[in-house]
Amino acid sequence: MAQVEPDRVLTEALAEIEATSDLTSLEAIRVRLLGRKGEVTAHLRAVSSLPKDERPAAGQAWNRVRGGLEGALEAREAALGSPGADTPSDDDFDFSLPGRRPPEGLPHVLMQTLDRLVEIFRSLGFSVADGPEVETTHYNFTALNIPEDHPTRDDHDSFFLAPDLLLRTQMSPVQIRTMEAQEPPVRVISPGRVYRRDHFDASHSPFFFQMEGLYVDTDVTLGDLKGTLREFVRRFFGKELGMRFRGSYFPFTEPSLELDISCTVCEGQGCAVCKQTGWVEILGCGMVHPNVLRGVGYDPEVVSGYAFGMGPDRITMLRHRIPDIRHLYENDLRFLSQFRGAS
Fold first, then answer.
1. Rounded to whole angstroms, how far apart are CA atoms 72 and 65?
2. Residue 155: how many CB atoms within 10 A of its CB?
3. Are residues 210 and 324 in the same domain?
4. pTM above 0.70, yes or no
5. Are residues 206 and 81 part of one domain?
6. 116: left (phi over 0), alpha (psi -120 to 50) or beta
């Protein structure tokens, strides 16, 4: 390394520090001179390569430079960072400028959907019921007429915590608990979280929301069920959509149906959400199975009822034309902020 006079380095650096007017530039000077690869640091390291008789004087000189620079940098930083140093006076401030509003929080778009669903069904005479997320196999399966060999009872479909305990796979156990606690008429909805061993893809999630409804009374018919769901679709989507009921099978209803609506993402043209069919299934439904009624102490010869279950996640996607369910769980504020007041 070429020989450099320590006093000259110190003099020039002190002048540069004194002329600095902001903390950013001051930090750049500190790094250039005293950083790990700084100029003064390099000269200090080079002392060990000098002849033995020159090392003491050189070491003292460069240590003196380093000490002088550290003191000057600290003093200048205090001066630049002191209160009022960079603060404009009242004469420099334009009081006519508009204020800056702090960012406002808003309900998650899924919560907006759930609130709207509850609002609609409350107006149709339903009350809200809730139950535990950790359920017994009796309430989650047996009381719902689900056979012992049904696939949903297996580990690969459900999250078991113990042989007789699992994270609920549906909101139907709330219906059983409600019927056990009161006599007909029963008209409730039960929104909440459910858990299944699904792959996380564009239309499925292992954790999602579900809302189920139940109406039990004398002379409840399939026509009552269809009329209720048609009114729900009209109110929720705000327009008339193509609808179709398809026959299906659920252990806890007989007969069982699935309700499809025309895909609102692709307008029926075919996309990943509707699997290129133009139709999306939004809920399953049917008349409550007599075995379920008997299990809670109701007489199926006297009362009848209907039940339905829907996924608010999928309904949210359809209403707002969201092509991928994963957007709802990634907490990207750029995405979520689009739905201010969406309900």
1. 11
2. 9
3. yes
4. no
5. no
6. alpha
Strand, helix or coil for residue 84: coil
127-128/186-195 β-pairing: parallel
83 confidence band (pLDDT: 50, 70, 90): very low
In a domain, 104, yes or no: no
DSSP for residue 49:
G
The pLDDT tens digits for 21-64 are 888 888 999 898 888 888 888 888 888 888 888 888 888 888 89
Cα angle, residue 114 at apex, residues 194 and 207 outer, rounded to 5°: 25
Residue 225 CA to residue 214 CA, distance in Å, equals 10
DSSP-based three-state secondary structure for 95: coil
- Pair (218, 185) in one structural domain: yes
The pLDDT assigned to 248 comes to 94
* Most distant CA pair in the chain, distance: 113
Residues 6+ apart with CB under 8 A from 304: 216, 217, 218, 219, 220, 221, 287, 288, 293
Q: What angle do CA 208, 212, 215 make, to 5 degrees?
A: 180
Same domain assignment for residues 79 and 124: no
Which string of DSSP letters, residue by residue, matches 15-32?
Answer: HHHHH--SHHHHHHHHHH
95/112 Cα distance (integer angstroms): 39
Residue 101 belongs to a domain: no
Quote the crossing angle between the two packed helices 6-19 and 23-34, to the nearest 10°: 170
Residues 86, 113 within the same domain: no
Question: Is 251 found in the same domain as 119?
Answer: yes
Domain contains 102 = no
Phi and psi angles of residue 192, each rounded to the nearest 5 degrees, phi first: 175, 180
Number of domains, the chain: 2
Residues 6+ apart with CB under 8 A from 329: 205, 207
Judge whether 25 lies within some domain.
yes
Give the Cα separation of 237 and 186 in Å (integer): 27
Same domain assignment for residues 155 and 31: no
Domain range enclosing 312: 109-339
Give dist(CA 276, CA 162) in Å, integer. 40
Contacts of 42 (CB under 8 A, 6+ apart): 1
- Looking at the fold, whether 81 and 149 belong to one and the same domain comes out as no
Pairwise CA distance, residues 315 & 236, whole Å: 9
